[in-house]
Amino acid sequence: MRRAVVVAAAGAMAVSLAACGSAKEAGEKPKDSGSAAGDAIKIGLLLPENQTARYEKFDKPLIEKKVAELTGGKGQVVYANAKQDATTQNSQVDTMITNKVDVLIIDAVDYKAIAGSIKKAKDAGIPVVAYDRRAEGPIDAYTSFDNEEVGKVQGKALLEALGDKAKDGQIVMMNGSVTDPNAALFKSGAHSVLDGKVNIGKEYDTVEWKPENANTNMAGALSALGKDKVIGVYSANDGMAGGIITALKAAGVSPLPPVTGQDAELAGVQRIVAGEQFMSVYKPYAPEAEAAAKMAVALAKGEKLDDIINQKVDSATTKGIPSVLIPVVSLTKGNIKDTVVKDGVYTVNDICTEKYAAACAAIGLK
């Protein structure tokens, strides 16, 4: 991945500093430089929902930990979760502006609907880091995973599972929510691998990523296509995979066809161990969270980003956004120990509860 040029990053920082000057003139507190006093910064963290386990269990504590480390314990993280409501998240941005945070980290519920609030923050002299989802509006920095690559990894895994039977029936594609720009990238990446190599019988954009909506969609697909005709399911994440597998079982589908996933949620990892879900995409949250914290602290202190970022990306509204993109890993039975266990995401005891003990032993997970 190419290193962004210093000039571009310095230019972006000049814009940020100019905005800080405007805020000062308007009566808001000026941003400190990178002095010891400048460690006492306030970072607003807005996450999109709490149904997916990652946000409360990993992202929030990891960001808080890194901010504390970078500021000698003086930095404050002010947190709010929108619970999948874009209107609520916009109100939360207003509250953060009123509370005069120094910088915002935003994982948008709706990447388009948040644009106006991001502009409000910028107008108030508050830089914005888009986290995990590439929000529209004048963002200063962005970190996520290579989301099109996520879809490609999922698609390749599904083809691997189907082998020479890839065209012997039909697959169902269960994409994510249209309000999430990442969902479009996952979908695009998956199609780039699957198109022409499988028969796609049904495809859905799942409202709000909810497992119950994926369950309903899957039941409809089985009714329309016939349960014996579905040979595989592309599921964009683990939560939906759970709803899909429940629908397959309820319909009496046996053996279960390969089902993909994403996020390496504990329930998803356990389904992989049990042979109910073929794979997940493991996205190491620590480097993503740490990148967001580093960029936020640097922006709050008026420091350059060029030693942090690894490339620049464009959104529909902003070009050349300083960014950090993190690689992903295909998680299957064979590498659970070398990924989520090795990285400390879960212990073997977390995964291998009594229900899964025999399956864990069968794959040497102990």
| Largest sheet strand order | 2-1-3-4-5-11-10
Radius of gyration of CA atoms, rounded to a whole number: 22 Å
Largest sheet: 7 strands, mixed
Overall pLDDT level: 91
Instruction: Write down the secondary-structure element order.
Output: HEHEHEHEEHEHEHEHHEHEEEHHH
List keywords for this structure.
alpha/beta, 7-stranded mixed sheet, 43% helix, 366 residues, 12 strands
Give a quick precis of the structure.
The protein is an alpha/beta fold. It has helices spanning 6-25, 53-70, 86-98, 115-123, 147-162, 181-194, 211-225, 238-250, 266-274, 285-301, 337-341, 348-351, 357-362; strands spanning 42-47, 76-81, 103-106, 128-131, 141-145, 170-175, 200-205, 230-235, 280-282, 311-313, 321-326, 329-331.
Walk me through the structure.
The protein is α/β, with parallel strands linked by helices. Helices cover 43% and strands 16% of the residues. The chain is built from 13 helices and twelve strands. It has helices at 6-25, 53-70, 86-98, 115-123, 147-162, 181-194, 211-225, 238-250, 266-274, 285-301, 337-341, 348-351, 357-362, and strands at 42-47, 76-81, 103-106, 128-131, 141-145, 170-175, 200-205, 230-235, 280-282, 311-313, 321-326, 329-331. The strands form three sheets. Strands 2-1-3-4-5-11-10 form a seven-stranded mixed sheet, sandwiched between helices. Helix 3 packs parallel to helix 4 (115-123), helix 5 (147-162) packs parallel to helix 6 and helix 7 (211-225) crosses helix 8 (238-250). The protein starts with 5 loop residues before the first helix and ends with a helix.
